[in-house]
Task: structure prediction
Amino acid sequence: MGQGRRRFTPCGLVALHMLCGATTATAQNIDRPNDTDDPTDLRIGRLLVTPSVRSSTRFDSNIFQEENNPTSDVITSLSPRLTVQGNWRVFALHLAAGGELGFYADSGNDDYQDMNLQAGGSLDLGPSSLDASLEYDRAHDPRGGNDVSSSATEPVIYRDVTARFGGRYASNGLQYESQIALRRLEFDDSMARNGSVIQNDDRDRLEMRESLRVLVPFDPGRDAYGEVNFNQRQYDRIPDDTGRVRDSSGYQLLAGLRFDLTDLITADLAAGWMSQIYADPAFGNVGDYTLRGDFDWAVTQLTTLDFTLARAVRETTVTGASGILALDAGVGISHELRRWLQIGATAHYSAEDFQQTTRRDETTRLGVSLSYQLNRFARIDGAIDYDQRVSNSDDHDYQRFQSQISLKLEM
Result:
């Protein structure tokens, strides 16, 4: 145990959740099945069972995001998934299991086997509701990422477990929403080109997040709100291999507006202040403005436009950096040419400042897509994407072109 280690406890906030009778938002991820039966639906009593499988082939011109002499490859993937949904009078259930198997034509060391399991439920109690969910991911961090050693010969395998509990409560014209979430991340070691072992347990950590939002309705479909979020990030290795203590705690204070105007425009826009305090004095602290935006507009019955914006502090284990102060902005548009044919375009910009270092990355991504519905069971998707990173740090610029075609079969 290092002397610089600080312990943070969410006990006081747990009591606050209980007083509010509330939770936020995992119910947003739980889809309630439509009560209208389709003769082709797979049903077991009140449960709707949806199996699906997607097969795709993708060309990537720069699989390791290299500045010079990029390596290209073709990746084939197979993604089966099974979803079970149930809807009772006051209870909704969501279960899902899926995976993705990826195979590189040339770089076989980068083949991957990812898995995802989900379980969630929501309880509707009239003026209040309760939600809970548990999610498990076995995933990979591909070579070329900021936190993967440049000498690695394979992707880094990690496990990500997240549990959430939340709810919603209305009283005296006000609505309270709250959530508590625990996330556990564990990273496997990997091999270097010289045959040595790359230790990745510096990244193993527990993240805790608590939030409370108070909404004031001022018009049908319009709410103003104030929100406070707390987080604690505790690493297993104290100190890490570079001698740093990466534990931290932080908060966000937000004021925002939420709209839902006749299903044509839905938006959640907020701004405020955030702070992240690090246990290691060598890292200093982060204090800056924060933004969050999610805007969806049904321009016509056939065209939709969406916009996202976020500014937050992200974790990193890049040497010398305490974290990343990141700004992300994206816009997307989709248009239905026919009932069975849809086109789309996206643009995304990201600016990342690596704190306590001079490094700054700017990444731009552009994409177009096409979706062709063969019938109610089969769909073909195609996409072309281009992304570019410009960095003031040597050997971190890159350009990449990707094209993909996939077939999805779903009951």
Remarks:
- The radius of gyration is 23 Å.
- Helices lie at 11-20.
- The longest strand covers residues 156-171.
